[in-house]
Amino acid sequence: MAASLNLLDLRIRFLKSERNLKAHLQASFPNPGEREKIRRIFREDIGKDDLGVGAHWRDGEIYFVYPVMVLVGRKAEG
Predict the structure, then answer these.
(1) Rounded to whole angstroms, how far apart are CA atoms 27 and 52?
(2) What mean pLDDT comes out for the span 31-57?
(3) Strand locations in the chain, DSSP E?
(4) What is the rounded distance in angstroms from the CA atom of residue 48 to the CA atom of residue 29?
(5) Residue 43 pLDDT exceeds 80
(6) CA distances from 43 to 3, 7, 36, 50 (A)
């Protein structure tokens, strides 16, 4: 993708943004009745990490890590 856009001096950084599941669900719009299903899926994944998001408890709340990739480059002239 970067090559097709003529980007040079590419730098890639992988970050992890920790999220509170409750707050994340409040800010999103799951289908009616789906919030508890999603909470159950995350709760059952704690200690397993089959989802790959590192779900864990903190202060009685479920948190998870949202992976982010940042790609920075310079547009080639011409």
Answers:
(1) 21
(2) 95
(3) 7-20, 56-58, 61-75
(4) 26
(5) yes
(6) 41, 42, 10, 12
- Find tokens 């089959």 and name the residue: 50
Please state whether 70 falls in left (phi above 0), alpha (psi between -120 and 50) or beta.
beta
pLDDT in tens, 7-23: 888 899 999 999 999 99
- DSSP β-bridge partners for residue 23: none
The tokens 């998001």 sit on which residue? 53
CA 11/CA 17 separation, integer angstroms: 19
* pLDDT tens-digit readout, 45-73: 999 999 999 999 999 999 999 889 998 98
